[in-house]
Amino acid sequence: MSANVISGKNEWFYSDAVKEHFFHPKNIFKTEDEKKRYKADGVGIVGSPACGDVMELMIKVRNDKIADCKWSTFGCASAIASTSMLSLMVTEKGGMKLDDALKIKPNDIMKRLGGLPERKVHCSVLGDKALRAAINDYFRKSEQYERIAVDSGKIVDKILKITDKDIEQAVLEGAKTFEDVQKKTKVGIQDKSCIPEVKRLIEQFKEKYCEY
Asked: Per the residue annotation, which of 69, 76, 123, 194 is the catalytic one?
């Protein structure tokens, strides 16, 4: 893969760190059998098969720290590099505390990578979301329900309390139409006044995450 990609008038440059983590990803599952044999304490799966990016991340927890982190993805170079770097961030220096790991933002990953092309910034969101999902999965399995991190968001459906974050995740998981999103979330079934806003959000998130 070239160090840079030409698209119209824009030239996308990748840092040395991005290239290193793309060509030599850290902590990635090398085979399906390896993934099946991995005894994870928490598993997070996020992304959109329809858009081409899917991320699966697994963690092992010891003494409330992330002792190990493995992952696999169907994604672009930026998604691979971002998650590779994230896997190092949470396991270095004896492992990151779970509460600290929940605070990691995409910008933190991008800083460690030396930046990402603007159109590829969304790729760092996949690893961030998968990590949060894996930690929450661990909290559920270990019955630490009070520690589950709930993403805040603007309430769209006032009856079912469905937020814009719920709509965003539905699009990431492959929903392209209002009917698809409604099937996943039940949005707009009782609070029909929210339907125009939901349709607007769907188009917004499709433009953000999906490349056609």
From this structure: 123
Domain 4-147 CATH (choose: 2.30.30.40, 3.90.1010.10, 2.60.40.10, 3.40.50.740): 3.90.1010.10
> 123 catalytic, yes or no?
yes
Q: How far apart are CA 146 and CA 160, in angstroms?
A: 22
* Alpha carbon separation from 153 to 44, 138, 161, 197 (Å, rounded): 20, 23, 10, 14
* pTM for this predicted structure: 0.66
Please say whether the beta carbons of 71 and 130 come within 8 A: yes
In the chain the first and final C-alpha atoms are separated, in Å, by: 21
Q: pLDDT digit string (tens) for 25-57?
A: 999 998 999 999 999 999 988 866 555 578 899
51 flagged as catalytic: yes
Distance CA 138, CA 147 (A): 10
The answer to whether 132 touches 57, Cβ cutoff 8 Å, is no
Cα gap 158→143, rounded to integer Å: 29
Pick the CATH number of 155-209 from 1.25.40.420, 1.10.510.10, 1.10.10.1100, 1.10.630.10: 1.10.10.1100
